[in-house]
Design goal:
- It is a single chain.
- This protein is mostly helical.
- It has 15 helices and two strands.
- Strands 1-2 form a two-stranded antiparallel sheet.
- Helix 6 runs parallel beside helix 11, helix 7 runs antiparallel to helix 11 and helix 7 crosses helix 13.
Amino acid sequence: MLYYLLTSLTSEVSAFNVFRYLTTRTGGAILTALLFAFVFGPKIISLLKVKQGRGQPIRSDGPQRHIVEKAGTPTMGGLMILSAVFVATLLWADLSNLYVWAVLFVTLGFGAIGFYDDYLKVTRSSTRGFSGRVRLLAEFVVAGIAVACFMWIGEKPLSSSLAVPFLKDVLIPFGGFFIFVGMLVIVGAGNAVNMTDGLDGLAIMPVMIAAASYGLIAYLVGNAVFANYLQVHFVRGTGELAVICGALVGAGMGFLWYNAPPAMIFMGDTGSLSLGGALGAMAVAVKHEIVLGIIGGLFVLETVSVIVQVISFKMTGKRVFAMAPLHHHFEQKGWKEPTIVIRFWIIALVLALIGLSTLKLR
């Protein structure tokens, strides 16, 4: 909205031309989302405390200290993040861009699914939400609609192909089947972030790092000159997704202020599912799906640890890790929570730098 208002005044005030630049609007989205979280965050936390009473149910089979230290902390903090992202995007993004609406659709759609799951957990005072199969089905439906939109907006054959990092001209054509590939990327990303969200501040910083990385990728891929220089596939219109990435970074910083140890609020499935879905959707939109596995490598490690643990226990009756996901394994080994969180942040940053290197190493 501000984008249209300010650019319409450029004929009268030439200085407003600066708001035509994507970098300016991305910066505006960061500051707007951050300010929104700071102003409305305490009110949202207070409201959730009143509504939820005993807060998020704590797993009885998890680390025992969580039952004592984290009991009573409200969940659904993702509402703070989603609200900040939505407001910042509406103010600073070009709303005529269909990529923006498709990514917002996934973000809010996954957020609604996560919200319902959180709601059932809180009202039932149980760590069990609604049926896993129903939840996955809902996620695949939302993701499928978004991927179909990406394929319709984009140029063929790129929009229905999988780009291979490090190889500038290699595309794996899937045709109509690409919709299933895209769905797997988005749903996988959503649930991977969801599994990572288990310690105060653990998930939100890697999400911010990944969002910043994809903001840069979107800016470069959506610019014909930069895309040609870097020899990456140019995807017209995706540069506008940098604004959403900026909003995610700003909202994430604001949320981390309240989620830092000891957390005043948890993001819950409302936040983790929507943030992961947003990252997955952006990866599909800018044709850097495989790179998400590198930039979001921490989320992949957490997910793999769960898969390995389940398969090992079912086949041999033995556990590979003291507890899964991976961050709980290190808790059981005696690592302090801040140590785990900060070291995982460092891993996420290193993986993001490796992922970004694919832009030039071709």
